[in-house]
Amino acid sequence: MKERKLTLDKIRNIGIIAHIDAGKTTTTERILYYTGSKHKIGSVDDGTAEMDWMEQEKERGITITSAATTAFWKDHRINIIDTPGHVDFTVEVERALRVLDGAVAVFDAQVGVEPQSETVWRQADKYSVPRIAFMNKMDKIGANFFNAVQTMIDKLGANPVPIVIPIGAEADFKGVVNLIEMKAYLWNSDDGMDFEITDIPEDLKEIAEEKREDLIAAAAEFDEELMELYIGEEEISNAQLKSAIRKGTLDNNLIPVYCGSAFKNKAVQPVLDAIIDFLPSPLDMPPVKAFDEQTGEFIKEIEPTKNEDFLALAFKIMVDPYVGKLTFMRVYSGSLEKGSYVLNTTKGKKERISRLMFMHSDKREEVDYVRAGDIVGVVGLKDTATGDTLASENSDLILEKLEFPEPVISVS
Ligand code: GDP
């Protein structure tokens, strides 16, 4: 079996979670458009077919129809798992949250936290999903970044820490100051491609200094070394600061906050960097529990390594216009080649894996094998339903079953 170049630490399985209308679709589309234009499949990962992206005009019409869509950013593979935004799909949201490692929570910067964002937030809390927040719609009348951040404290009890501050607001929204780099990101064109990184505008220098101080103080809570430097008023490197922010985020005790306007294309690059810098890879995740398929008794914890037996969870089934029934699964351990057989331990049925594919916004990328950490679409499964465990043929393990969720009551 050919080794993949892309190691597990370079994978991010994330969801974009939001109150309906906050801009989840627009933000996702901008991410796919931007990453798609910057990358050709095949150049990062081995064992994949080289395919061309559609011409730019067609890319503009990107829609996310897949349960998991793959994008590349700075030599990382980002799998974006679709999470339904409507409260009626609570069970589906929970299922999606189980298979992802981190999330971007999108809010409307004019209203901040809304009742439905509370519901998804509490579901993400339940599964300890590390999150970053994105205050979208900074171009909208009434948009107010710091008020919106405050609603995360008041309504969610979260610990939001701005990593950027906006330059302008409403019709004058121009970009952001990044408080780690202490640089301004200014967008010059409507397609989001043309932006420059410049010095901080004079009138924002003071507040940027003040907010950077707050950021360091918040991050230092999670890193003793940083705390000592901070107290001793010594120089702090960007790498040290980022590492402390990452610790707090993975601990589920700090939420890095960004802002922008997905609609006006002033948004995406800093958020993509944040996904890479702060959200976990499959290696950062706690082991998954496996149970006996007969008795339901706990058997062992599953480490995300390809040396263990194959174990995966089917989390979504879709009908694809080209390949028919497509079952999306998250692989928790081991690896699997196309053409091989697996046991659906939930149903006690043997199934054949005919084809394996990563879905991009506009292409299918066929692969010969998948391994722990991957999220992939499978062709060929006949009897597998969502929530079923797929395992190696001699296995008698099932993964944690999805409990029927308790109703989430939102308090405002
Ligand atoms: P979703 O329901 O969360 O997926 O939200 P959509 O992405 O469909 O966006 C909902 C509405 O908000 C649409 O009319 C979008 O055009 C609009 N919208 C999305 N992003 C922005 C933004 O950055 N600024 C403004 N003003 N409107 C936006």
UniProtKB/TrEMBL annotation:
It is found in: Cytoplasm. Transmembrane segments: none annotated. One of its GO terms (biological process) is ribosome disassembly. Keywords: Cytoplasm, Elongation factor, GTP-binding, Nucleotide-binding, Protein biosynthesis. One of its GO terms (molecular function) is translation elongation factor activity. GTP binds at residues 18-25, 82-86, 136-139. Residues 9-283 form the Tr-type G domain. One of its GO terms (cellular component) is cytoplasm. Belongs to the TRAFAC class translation factor GTPase superfamily. Classic translation factor GTPase family. EF-G/EF-2 subfamily. Catalyzes the GTP-dependent ribosomal translocation step during translation elongation. During this step, the ribosome changes from the pre-translocational (PRE) to the post-translocational (POST) state as the newly formed A-site-bound peptidyl-tRNA and P-site-bound deacylated tRNA move to the P and E sites, respectively. Catalyzes the coordinated movement of the two tRNA molecules, the mRNA and conformational changes in the ribosome. This is Elongation factor G. It comes from Geotoga petraea. The lineage of its organism: Bacteria, Thermotogati, Thermotogota, Thermotogae, Petrotogales. The chain holds residues 1 to 412 of 695 of the full protein.
